[in-house]
Amino acid sequence: MPARIVLQQADITRALTRISHEILESNRGPDNLVILGIPTRGVVLADRIGGLLREISGTLVPVGALDVTLYRDDLGRNPTRAPSPTQVPPGGIDGKTVVLVDDVLYSGRTIRAALDALGSIGRPSIVRLATLIDRGHRELPIRPDFVGKNLPSSQSERINVHLQEIDGDEYVSIEESGS
Amino acid sequence: MRHLLSTRDLSRDQAIAILDVAEDMADVADREVKKLPTLRGKTVVNLFFEDSTRTRISFEAAAKRLSADVINFSAKGSSVSKGESLKDTAQTLAAIGADAVVIRHGSSGAPLVLANAGWIEAAIVNAGDGTHEHPTQALLDAFTIRRRLHGPASRGHGLDGVTVTIVGDILHSRVARSNVWLLTTLGASVTLVAPATLLPIGVDEWPVAVLFDLDEALARQADVVMMLRIQSERMHAAFFPNAREYSRQWGLDDGRLDRLGPDSIVMHPGPMNRGLEISAGAADSPQSTVLEQVANGVSVRMAVLYLLLSGERTLS
Amino acid sequence: MTETILVRGATLADGTRTDILVRAGVIAELGKAIFASADRLIDADGLIALPGLVDLHTHLREPGFEQSETVLTGSRAAAIGGFTAVHAMANTSPVADTAGVVEQVQALGVAAGYVTVRPIGAVTVGLEGRQLAEIGAMANSRARVRVFSDDGKCVSDALLMRRALEYVTTFGGVVAQHAQEPRLTEGAQMNEGTLSGELGLAGWPAVAEESIIARDVLLAQHVGARLHICHLSTAGSVDVVRWAKARGIAVTAEVTPHHLLLTEQLASGYDSRYKVNPPLRRDEDVHAVRAGLADGTIDIVATDHAPHPVEAKDCEWEAAAFGMVGLESALSVVQASVVDTGLLDWSDVARVFSRAPAAIGRLDGYDRGIAVGSPAEFTLYDASASRVFDTSRLRGKGLNSPYLETTLPGRVVATIHDGYATVLDGELVEADAVARFAAAAGAREAGVRNG
After folding, report:
1. Per mean pLDDT, which range of A131-135, B76-80, B99-103 is the poorest?
2. Which residues form the signal peptide (chain B) (predicted)?
3. Which residues, at least 6 apart from C189, have a Cβ–Cβ distance to it below 8 Å?
4. Among B173, B272, C93, C210, which residue has the least CB neighbours within 10 Å?
5. C91 with C239, same domain?
6. Minimum mean pLDDT among A83-92, B8-17, C108-117, C126-135: which range?
7. What's the CATH code of the domain at A93?
8. Per the confidence metrics, is the pTM higher than 0.95?
């Protein structure tokens, strides 16, 4: 079965804009916010959300990257992955409201690892989670605060997120995995 | 990567990948919590047939920062010194369930034998074998040079165009060998400086330049001058007449230090013989990276252990 | 109980096709379509009949190192390799430096019966290089020792070497020198060159061998003695021996099968099966020793069969013992390295592997090869065979062969020693059967001598 496009570029932009509004709404403004993307595509999404927050609120919101590779619990089940840099914004995260950003939320294990990773770089007062796609099949008690699109899927299906900055084109598609 | 046995068989991409992961590991050292859960449940054995407190504690710190369990097996004064073979030791460690064995051995090639003989499935890390190689030392040296040159923007870089002069007992130095292969793989040009007695036969076929005269070499203003430890027992085997003459001809003294370019860096793998191959002034100068090398050693060894132990184990 | 054996349709080294009739321990008749009754008929169609191979350099390890090899097991390894005589090196425990030890080794050889075992006597007491061993007593013993060697160690003291050369001459013997300058090879692990430098293994320079050979040929010339050079391994050594022979010096030299085929490159994986003394050398050296063997500079091939127990090789390179087993594979390796490459023909093989080593060792019966009236010592070899050499081909105790899992040409089909078969259809004849034949042959020969 060929890949089926579920979000076009305009849909993605619209979803991120809505998420940005929701973040500001729930935080009652831009103060004290830190946006941390989870590599690889979460970092791009975090950058875009940072830009949107600035556009909407007129305030510069610190954006960074949080690598979770070294905190994963499934390292022995997959080929070795190279970690990506973690970039903590200059103000740090202590006492801040950190919004973690990822492209697809699935089992929740990445987010569990992210929470551990976060704990080793500081102590935020609140941690929230934004994801472009929530495809279900959670294995841990983790739930997103901001969702671009809920996309019910079967576990045999694969979700592809393409972003301009990384892939040169932009869409979200779903397909039967080739295995 | 299944084992780390030498730098000779590392490709440029592999070497840069290790150094890049080491950058991530170095970041951890700056954090509030310096420990990662990455290798929880893994067992790393430090199997040391030669004393080397520095290398052992560096590997131990690296493994512990990654939450691995560490067993130190000092073969001196153990059953090994009573005639137990490498094979029996290896099979014992396999039975204990070692996931990685960090081996320091006086015999060149012992880590390779351990990796290939089928006695143990663990990942093998060469922590110095005879006069063959000491790959993690070379990796930490390359890492140190790269950080001095590129600072926080080091990731992805090789050492293209960097000039490195290595001075001392090349013949018996595993550090020199590992550095020659690694640094040249990363694009650096390497010059070796030593008396002819301390250069191996066939060195003319290595990818390096060779000089006998240290002053001539220093006049070329290398980016890096790496001094090797000279062992005093060498003079008894007629490699050179005495320490005084060696120091005068091939030691980095204060006068020679002054003639280095201001941006040149001075490296030494340690432990140093101050006053013999390096003066106290040179060792403690701002150009010296000796302590950075020690700190970077932990990051590089974390990277190596991570890369060897984190992926799926494919049984051979 | 002696056998009459009729071999049908063998091809001699010179290409002649012939039947061979063996009766009462000697070759009774040669020719086409021999009509005779025989206890045993061997079809040798397509097989080469070579005179029995004589090894001038074998480590049988007994007495003292029976976990590595015994005279019996080493004799079996020799027979399956086509040998009918071996010279047992002196580095046993106790060292073969007295008449008692050499007579014991010889007696064990006779009892085993697979090959003639000729003990080599030590040059110096305990191989220690300080004091001459009882060379006269060994020469005059029942073992009639004619080859003296401290092999494994070099007789490095120039004065002692001079005296040994002179003294051995008194008994018609020869000193077989293990040419290795000890100071230049302290801790040495492999050939010194680019590769040893890269591997970090202490180098064994060619000059350590060549300088001793140069010194010893000059000593031999000076005192008018015979000198034999063991396991020559470098191009420079070939040059020195060639120079010495051109000057008329009575020097002979041997090369091992492994130095004819293998190079130092094999050490690069630190697999200690390739650790040997002298070490494997460069490709240039391999070609030089082949050329030296082809032009007669090197007189003979000798195996330096050096069995070790598994644990002596199942370890890191520096801890491993030096040496390789070689009897079982020798003829195949010679075929691969110098026959199939066109450097030697089968007559040359008969010379370098039978007649010449027998002459150096003063071993009777091999001077005419396969000829009517000569003792029946020969082997039937299938040069067209090709096989993966594995441990199932080894018959000694040592498994330390460098050829395991490699393909080698040729196969020994039958070996006839002293008129009886030790190998038939490519397999050893049972030990008790061989011992019975040997005892009968011994009784017959005693009868001949007494009558």
Report:
1. B76-80
2. none
3. B108, C196, C201, C202, C203, C204, C275, C279, C317, C318
4. C93
5. yes
6. A83-92
7. 3.40.50.2020
8. no
- pLDDT at B316 > cutoff 70: no
Give yes or no: residues C42 and C60 share one domain: no
Interface of B with A in 151-190 (CB under 8 A): 155
Predicted local confidence at residue B233, as pLDDT:
75
Find, among C87, C92, C59, the residue nearest to C73 by Cα: C59
C27 and C56 inside one domain: no
- Inter-chain touch B108–C195, beta carbons under 8 Å: no
Nearest CB neighbour to B24, from listed A71, A85, A120:
A85
Domain-located, residue C175: yes
pLDDT for the residue numbered C237: 98
The answer as to whether C448 is a domain residue is no
- Which residues of C are the active-site residues? 304
Q: Which architecture characterizes domain B12-134+295-309 according to CATH?
A: 3-Layer(aba) Sandwich (3.40)
Looking at domain B136-289, which CATH architecture does it have?
A: 3-Layer(aba) Sandwich (3.40)
The pLDDT tens digits of the residues spanning C133-151 come to 999 999 999 999 999 999 9
Q: What is the DSSP string of C379-419?
A: EEEEEEEEEEE-GGG--SS----TTTTEEEEEEEEEEEETT
B228-269 pLDDT, tens digit per residue, is 999 877 777 889 999 999 999 999 999 999 999 889 999 999
Check whether residue C166 and residue C295 sit in a common domain. Answer: yes
- Which domain, by its residues, includes A51? 10-72+86-153
> What share of residues in chain A are helix, strand, coil (percent, to 5)?
35, 25, 40
Domain that holds residue C156: 52-360
CATH number of the structural domain spanning residue C420: 2.30.40.10
Q: Is the bond leading into C278 cis (omega within 30 degrees of zero)?
A: yes
- pLDDT at residue B81 in the model: 55
* Assembly ipTM: 0.93
Q: Would you call B86 and C270 a contact, using CB atoms and an 8 Å cutoff?
A: no
Average pLDDT score, chain C: 96
Residue set of the binding site of B for L-aspartate: 82, 174, 229
C225 and C331 fall within a common domain: yes
pLDDT at B84: 74
Q: Which whole-number Å values give the CA distances from C284 to A130, C259, C262, C343, in the listed order?
A: 70, 11, 11, 16
Cβ–Cβ contact B311 with A under 8 A:
yes
Question: Is C367 among the domain residues?
Answer: no
| Domain count across chain A | 1
The whole-angstrom distance between B285's CA and the closest CA on chain C is: 33
CB pairs under 8 A between B and C: 80
Classify residue C13: in a domain, yes or no.
yes
Interchain contact B169–C (C-beta under 8 A): no
Are C21 and C170 contained in the same domain? no
Confirm if A175 and A157 have CB atoms less than 8 A apart: yes
Domain with CATH 3.40.50.1370 in chain B: 12-134+295-309, 136-289
